Amino acid sequence: MRAFVPPGVVLDGELVVWERGRTNFALLQRRVTAGRQLLREAREHPAYYVTFDVLVDAGGEPVLDAPLVERRARLMRLLAGAPPQLAVTPQSADLSEVSEWLTTWTAAGVEGVVIKRLDSRYEPGRRGWAKFRARATTEAIIGGVTGSIRNPDTALLGRFDRRGRLRYTGRTHPLATPQREELAGLLSPPRPTERRAVIHPWPDPLPAAWSGQFERPEPLRYVQVEPTVVAEIQVDTAYEHRRWRHRVRYARPRLDLSVYDVPLILGEGEDPFSGYARTA
């Protein structure tokens, strides 16, 4: 950064860590708690800085009021010849090229595209742009809910691995009232065994490391249910450590499907969109 960015320059961008051809947010987050192992983490999993915009140009010149097309030109000149670790995010006004990005780059963990006006100024604290996420429609098994079985707030989802174990894979956004009412008639508590013991594949509460909710990093209390209901969901590309990092969108129950019709849990490095129906 010191070698290629003049003092006083202010850039807008994002740190990215790559692992086996995909972005890996967990490896980036690991640096926060690495302590004395921070330098080793940085060496083993180096970060790249992908720049989006320039706010202050060389010489300390503020360019917030300049249109995006001019700021983009300044950014390209500023970082001309910089190494791959200091990259400029691609930009295009060609819709066919953008469609190609949404189709092919999702395998690398790219979540979508950001849409900005070429004549827009940079407005700190305001969102003068729109985000278009690439999503896919797929299925998962409901293994638990927050709230109650009769009034579920969110659904906790899972999939079988190749050994037949139901593994936790993610959580939905809050359910709409019609969805809650429909699920309330389908869900049931776990059935006890012959010895009257209730066996569920997940611990209660759900470990904080499983739920991945960074704004609330504590174990998640939930209600276990018999894992017999299949849900149709919409997911994005943020799939790491066999879980969807972002909350997923619940669409509907798939009463026509058995839990054994649900795709098996993905392995590390597999494309989360492979074989799914893509959606907007």
Automatic annotation (TrEMBL):
Signal peptide: none annotated. This is ATP-dependent DNA ligase. SUPFAM superfamilies: DNA ligase/mRNA capping enzyme, catalytic domain (SSF56091). It comes from Micromonospora sp. HUAS YX12. Residues 40-165 form the ATP-dependent DNA ligase family profile domain. It catalyses: ATP + (deoxyribonucleotide)n-3'-hydroxyl + 5'-phospho-(deoxyribonucleotide)m = (deoxyribonucleotide)n+m + AMP + diphosphate. It comes from the Bacteria. Keywords: Ligase. PROSITE patterns: DNA_LIGASE_A3. The lineage of its organism: Bacteria, Bacillati, Actinomycetota, Actinomycetes, Micromonosporales. PANTHER family: DNA LIGASE 4. GO terms for molecular function: ATP binding; DNA binding; DNA ligase (ATP) activity. GO terms for biological process: DNA recombination; double-strand break repair via nonhomologous end joining; nucleotide-excision repair, DNA gap filling.
